[in-house]
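Example 3.2
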Amino acid sequence: MTAFERFVRPALFRVGGGDAEKAHEFTLGRLSRLGERSRAVLRARYATDAPVEVFGVRFPNAVGLAAGMDKNGVALRAWPALGFGFVEVGTVTAKAQPGNDQPRLFRLRDSEAIINRMGFNNAGAAALAARLKALGPPRSSNLGVPLGVSLGKSKVTPLEEAVEDYLASYELLHPFADYIAVNVSSPNTPGLRTLQDKSAIGNLLGSLVGRVPVLVKIAPDLTEPAIAELLDVCLSHGAAGVIATNTTLARDGLAATDQPRAAETGGLSGAPLTEKARKVVHFVHTETGGRLPIIGVGGVMCADDARRLLDAGASLVQLYSGFIYHGPALVRSVARAAAAIR
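Structure, written as C-alpha cells:
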C-alpha cells in the first residue's frame, strides 16, 4: 500500500463529510496553489521520460489525465509534476453552465468505482480560453506536455444547433490545444449520445476537422455495428483518432456493498469498466486495421490494466478513477509499463 493510499486518500475521502465533489474541489484548489519548488519535488519522484508520437503530437510518456478531472484548467501546472505525459481539460461548453443538481458525484469504494451525473458543469469556453492565454505560449510549449481540450454541447442548445455550439467553443480554444476531443458520449446531457449517429457525427466532424487533430470520444454502451458505422465516418472525415471510452450506464461488476449506490443515475467509471473498455479498444483497433490511433480510458486501476489496453490496440491511456483511488504512484507505474512494451 502506498503512502497515498494509507494516508492521503482516507483524509481526502473525509473532506466535506465524505462528499466526493467537495473533496474534488478541495484537491483542485490545493494543486492549483502548488509552487515551483513543490512541483519540482513531485516531478523528480513521479515523472517518466518515455517519449511517444501519436497523430503527429509528441508525448513525454503515454499516460494522460482524462477529461473531467480539471474541467476549467485551474491546476494545469500541477499535472505534469504528478507524472502525466499529457492533460485533457474540460469537458467545456460554449456557454457557462452549472451542471446538474447536487449531489451528483458518488464513490463506490469497495468496487473502486465512481458514478457521476455532473452535467458538464464548467465556466464556459471563453473563460477557459482566457485562462489558457494567461498561461503564456500556446500548447505544450508552455506546459511541457501536450494539452487536449474536450468539447461538449451546451445543455440549453437544441440538438439541431449542436454543430454551431461545438464550433463556437472550437474557435475559441483550438489555438491553445494540441488536440481537440469531441465528447458526444456523456450520458449526463439529454440527447447528447444521439450525436454519435452517422449523419450527426459526420456533420460535426466536417465542421471541426482541419487545424488541429480532432478525436471522437465514444460510449462503451454502443453496439459493435454502431461503433463500426461511427468509425467509418471518423475515417472518411479525417478524425485523428478515437478516445475509448466514456462512462457506462451499465452497473455490472459492483460489489454487494455498493449495490445501494447502483440506483444513482449517471455514468459509471472505475474498475467495473476495465474489461468493457478493453473490448471496445480491441474492436476499434481491429475494425480500422490500426488506421485510427486510440486513447484507451476506462478502469485503468493498475499497470497491468494499462498493458492490456495497449496490447488491445491503444496508443495512449488516460486515468481518472484510478488516480482518485491510487494517486500519482499509479501514473508512474502505468507510464513505466507503457514504456516497457514499446
